[in-house]
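can u do me a favor
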């Protein structure tokens, strides 16, 4: 094969499983081929719940790192007159003589000037998918005073097809990772990607179980416009997910206006596993109470309904894995412990408190919880002992 750069793209490049590794390897191959390179950037405009795009960058001074494109930056970079957008439309190569332009021209990052780059070459990469054509952009920059020669730019252009193949592969891996973590959670998503995709795949684990629900949601759903109802749910779930994940918990499922999560305890907590799990779940309830108070302050300032909720905490064995039909599975937890947590949650409304716990949770929790008596739970033959979870501000009306 005549071009060693193309040879690298069709052989060694396949070892790099993420964008940062790929751009670092590509930069090394470019340098070995005798072409000046001080920066390689690869970016995608792809579905992501938090950012408009994700990519990777290698710089001689700082090495390789992941790049996140904020939504506001996407709007600036993708202006019709900008070189990024032109490269996506036309493929390129598009050359930008940075040293000859004013700082920040062409809606490019001002750091390109600040870091002393002289010349920039941009290629648009394309590939077909079922829902239409997808694109990425790769750029090559040098600080060499003379910039890139025409032959070097042509050499970059000759790699477009092979670069597009790798961009597609990396994009699919990234998209799959984002989608599984967004819809399944970090641990469940990782397990599915690692091959836990068959009905019956799973294991019995012991964990603190969180089951939460919104108070008065049925009545709200009958009188609120759907847009306001959705906003209320989003605000409530955002506060809960943030509180749970901050303390190391794993959100497994949204069930209407309810939510199911587990805590298994961090090994570096200094506590026994069961105590660590319960301590984390307890801390998350306090974080949630503070967060909901702030959210409700903001909601009520604009005339929106306040969020009222309840959380039940339990500890026990659950089956963690795939259940469902052969062609339609759900990765979740099931078992009597989950059922008890779900049955326990309505007691929050009866007692007018934000969170309650079972005896199995209370005996393992490193903090003292207050007995509230025995209560009959729907579907359970014998009453269960209920405990009040110490909150950030004390009991409050539901």
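np, heres the sequence
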């Amino acid at each position: 094969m005549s071009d060693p750069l193309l040879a690298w793209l069709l052989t060694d490049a396949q070892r790099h499983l993420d964008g940062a590794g790929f751009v670092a390897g590509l930069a090394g191959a470019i340098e070995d081929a005798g072409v000046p390179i001080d920066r390689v950037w690869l970016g995608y405009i792809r579905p992501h719940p938090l950012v408009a795009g994700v990519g990777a960058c290698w710089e001689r001074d700082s090495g390789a790192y992941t790049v996140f494109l904020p939504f506001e930056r996407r709007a600036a970079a993708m202006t019709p007159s900008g070189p990024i957008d032109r490269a996506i439309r036309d493929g390129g190569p598009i050359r930008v003589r940075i040293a000859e332009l004013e700082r920040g021209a062409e809606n490019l990052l001002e750091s390109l000037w600040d870091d002393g780059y002289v010349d920039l070459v941009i290629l648009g990469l394309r590939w077909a998918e079922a829902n239409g054509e997808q694109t990425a952009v790769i750029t090559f920059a040098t600080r060499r005073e003379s910039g890139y020669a025409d032959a070097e730019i042509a050499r970059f252009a000759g790699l477009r097809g092979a670069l597009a193949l790798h961009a597609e592969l990396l994009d699919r891996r990234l998209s799959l990772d984002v989608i599984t973590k967004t819809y399944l959670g970090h641990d469940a998503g990782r397990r599915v990607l690692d091959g836990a995709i068959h009905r019956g795949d799973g294991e019995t684990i012991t964990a603190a179980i969180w089951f939460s629900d919104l108070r008065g949601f049925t009545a709200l759903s009958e009188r609120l416009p759907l847009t306001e109802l959705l906003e209320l749910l989003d605000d409530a779930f955002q506060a809960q997910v943030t509180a749970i994940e901050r303390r190391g918990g794993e959100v497994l499922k949204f069930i209407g206006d309810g939510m199911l999560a587990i805590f298994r305890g961090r090994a570096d907590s200094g506590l026994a596993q069961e105590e660590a799990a319960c301590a984390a779940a307890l801390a998350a309830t306090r974080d949630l109470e503070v967060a909901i108070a702030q959210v409700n302050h903001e909601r009520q300032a604009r005339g929106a309904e306040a969020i009222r909720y309840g959380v039940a905490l339990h500890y026990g064995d659950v089956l963690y894995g795939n259940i469902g039909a052969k062609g339609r599975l759900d990765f979740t937890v099931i078992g009597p412990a989950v059922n008890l947590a779900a049955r326990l949650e309505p007691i929050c409304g009866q007692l007018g408190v934000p969170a309650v716990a079972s005896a199995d949770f209370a005996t393992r929790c490193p903090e003292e919880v207050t007995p509230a008596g025995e209560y009959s739970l729907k579907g359970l033959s014998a009453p269960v002992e209920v405990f009040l979870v110490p909150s950030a501000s004390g009991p409050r009306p539901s």
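The mean pLDDT is 86. hope that helps!!
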